[in-house]
Specification:
By secondary structure, this protein is an alpha+beta fold. Helix content is about 50%, strand content about 20%. It has one domain. The protein contains four helices and four strands, in the order αβααβββα. A two-stranded antiparallel ribbon has the order 1-2. The protein has a two-stranded antiparallel ribbon with strand order 3-4.
Length: about 140
């Protein structure tokens, strides 16, 4: 396996964790959004990952030399929470129904924050892997001098 292929794997992991972090931040930002353009409260979203072949301009040109196709990760879909919204009794709220209840998004900002910390750490792990690969490439070049 080529060191460049390993860099592609880490790059795909970084892209996937970035997408996950964006969705988690969106969930936290809309934790109290009771009205959306689609109508009703905000629906919490989750990212689903899938393994996928890594591709880069360099590896596609030299695929025969690199050997078998390397698997990375990609975002296969972003799913919305279909559970019923949480109802809170707030009769003075502009989005209250006839009974005085307001539909709020069903989610847990503390859980989203923990997931965001995990995404950040996994992103950093991929950065560390790329740094180690880069150091190996530099050492290999130094050995050839």
């Amino acid at each position: 396996m080529s060191l460049f292929a390993l860099m592609s794997v880490s790059a795909s992991g970084m892209a996937a964790q970035r997408a996950r972090a964006e969705v988690l931040v969106e969930n936290m930002a809309n934790a109290d959004t009771t009205r959306t353009p689609e109508g009703g409260p905000y629906r919490r979203k989750e990212v689903v990952f899938n393994s996928a072949p890594t591709t880069s301009a360099f590896s596609s040109m030299f695929q025969n030399a690199l050997g078998p196709q390397v698997q990375g990760v990609e975002v296969s879909q972003v799913i919305e929470d279909n559970r019923e919204p949480e109802k809170r009794y707030l009769p003075g709220h502009p989005d209250a129904d006839a009974s005085g209840y307001v539909a709020f998004p069903r989610g847990n900002p503390a859980e989203d924050m923990v997931d965001l910390m995990g995404a950040s750490r996994q992103y950093q792990a991929n950065v560390s892997a790329m740094t180690a690969i880069k150091d190996m490439i530099h050492r290999s070049i130094d050995l050839m001098k």
